[in-house]
Amino acid sequence: MLSYKLNVDKKSEIDPKKNILKRLDTLINQYITPQILCDRLEDLPHQFKNPQPRAWQPIHWQNINSEQVIGIKLEVFLSILIGAIETEEPIRGYTQASRQYLEPIHPQLARFVGGIAATDGTMLELGLWEKEERQHAPALIKIYKQLTGKHPSFSLHTPKIYEPLNNPYDDLYRHGLHRVITEYSAVCLYLWLMAHTTSTLQQVFAELLQDEINHMTKFWGFGLWLFPESYLSRIGSSLRRIFVQQNASQTSHIQSTIHLFRTFRRMMGVLNWNGWSWHHRLELVYTFIKVLHLLWRWSKSLTPEYLTQLFVTK
User: Fold this and answer.
1) What is the pTM of this model?
2) What ranges do the domains of the chain cover?
């Protein structure tokens, strides 16, 4: 498996107002290469057999300070942290809904995501995805406490529960599309936060980023394998509608797009989007577009035969 290399720059080497886009380009080119994406995808069969959480590098939390936040006001940065905590925190609800949608179609991936649950809902085994994701909210809380000396005050939202309709494949399609775009959004957000941080603080976001890339890649590849005819086009059309903020309720778009638009709008709301400057908004949109372009190009190289080797269980 590949080892990720963290390139932490010194604050003095970067003019944050002029070079954030260059920083973003460097980070994207470092962390989202075809080789890394394929490595994360090919890791999945190994995790089916012997699930092992990705280990984080040691972090010296006491070294985090406000000087490591660059190109953005600290109060805005802290409000984004609060939103990220609120989004990351209810991990058990996310994993169990995904497990239930996956179980009729791919039991191994369902176990990877949500573990094994008894009929009464008691967890018998945690999923690998949950083990990795449940580190995120505590890490963000540690950052907030280190920067402010206070515990953050935040609200918890309730994740959507498992709501099957008539066809398990259609149910999984709708849910899976939502899951992929959520992971993709997290990747872009943590890349953007890395571009606005240095030193130990940037290192923490690098660990979060690597987890999200790992999970996004696995869900993306699975969706492409299971729904090859329409998956990429549906992702692209849904994201276009989100970015241009069309009113989905006034078009003939399917219900899943409406849900994606609402989810994206809620996520940007909790991240205090209205408090962002125009150039910060443009930076994040730039990140979304560039990452999607790279993922699109990578997806075109994934043949049905290649994906079948990874996802067909024996």
Assistant:
1) 0.85
2) 11-311
